[in-house]
Amino acid sequence: MAIYLLVRILGGVVTLFCVSALAFFATALAPGNPAAVLLGNLATPERIAAVTEQMGLDKPLPIRYAIWLKEMLQGNLGTSNLSFKPVNDLVLAALPPTLELAALSLALAVVIAIPMGLILAQNRDRWWTRPLSGLVTLGISVPGFWVGLLLIVVFSMTFKLLPSGGYVPMTRSVSGNLRAMILPVLTLAIYLIPSLVRFVRVTAANVLREDYIDTARAKGAGAWRILLQHVAPNTLIPTITYIGLQLGVLISGAIVIEIIFSIPGLGRLGMNAVLNRDYPVIQGVVLLAATGYVVVNLLIDLAYSLIDPRIRTR
Amino acid sequence: MTEISAPARPQRGAVAYILRRSPVAALLVALFLIAALLGPWLAPHSMTDTNLGQALQPPNATYWLGTDALGRDVLSRLLGSAGIAAQAFLIVVLTGGVLGTLFGLVAGGIGGLTDLVLSRVIEILQGFPTVLVAIVIVALLSPSLTNAMIAVGLAAVPDFARVARGVAIQLREREFIQAARGLGMGEMRILASEVLPNMVGPLIIIASFDGAQAIMWEAALSFLGLGVQPPYPSFGSMLREAQNFLAIQPSLAITVGLTVSAIILGLNLLGDGLSDYYDRSDK
User: Fold this and answer.
1) Which superkingdom, per the lineage (chain A) (predicted)?
2) pTM here?
């Protein structure tokens, strides 16, 4: 168990190290001297040279990377080239909307998709599952952000029921916060549900073919009892792994949806930074998102090594 | 080498099977191919020339699907977008397919420590947020279709690698491989000439699913401004422009979205049909 833990944690650290190197070198090698960008209209060769030295840009790349890494490890993400605010503050301010969007959407998707997948698998020979399965294929084929645009047209513009965007902090108004979140959360959930239903349906269908299901049936267990007591638990572990792997999709989806609904989250911060070549902010956003991705996957791995003892011994 | 060649799989029947079993997929993919290949010749108007006097026209005899906010013909721009989508498909399937197949083939075919290391790399790549990779690549280079699609192609590497590795492991101990080894063929040559041809079917299935994803990502990344740049049309950049006029002309966003959804649906159905076909011929 200890070795298993160690290998997983080591793997996570290696991943983050690679991401940090990628984020650093990608931005360090990008065209344009940050000192010149920083000075803007005030740039003269002397000033650029002075600022270059001040920023440590004249040192060799590996040394700059080491210095940068040291700052990162101490939790200092640097200063924005654009607003001159500490990246830490910018990122921390952008985190709550993104987390709220991602968490609510995932929760909604799981609550709808898992029962739907189980029921589709159990009734796979019935006629009424065919149109539902067709709907799932259709759902996989529709771009999520386009669904968001349609929801805005229907609910904000035609019926004027819900705001078409923006973000109200929880601390200011809980109901205002939730009202503004309905459409973004719905959009992201609709994007996540089809592939999750598909996965649960296939996994559950495989479980239903196991011998122990026949045994349970022979012993007189009803359809619902088999589904809830035997199929659901055995479908759950692969499904949790799958959700962990889908975390990247969740992060990507949240970024796109923040742009559509003007939510001031990490995605918007990152996109604005890219369009303005604000490298410290890009690095901060990429590192934070990557850390979240690695840590959650690690936690999932650990969680089911606790649930399922067979995994530990592998 | 004919005497030890691998048991051939029926590849030729695939087209007939798709035409018979999923005509919708065949129709949608055929329309997409026609639009992508012949778009520039079929387009009734210029894809990029603006004409402000004709802005936001509803569908009419001159402009069959209406015009956008700059007076450009929506039908012509959709045809151009189909070409861009086909390019996105090719870039992703080539990057992901070549790198992924190579990774999987070597990992599964050689095994041991090589497999362990490569599998770990594949695992790390898998599921890493595509938008983040795109942001990093675009920050390093510049926003363009190719740069954005390379990010999506990298995300597709694990899919191809997993399939290639699985087939390679399955085949490693089969008789015809042993025979090739007995004849003194090197491992790399065996992988290339004996194992690779046997994974074409599964790889085509992955290519159609990941190609569908590629078109969706092209739309998303161009919508964000990371991909195709104005004035050139793409499904994503058209939706980005349509978003500003949702209140005045929602039909614009609806038309573009329906078109791109139909293409993606066609490719997904094609993937489903091909999976059925190869499942069947396995038995």
Assistant:
1) Bacteria
2) 0.84
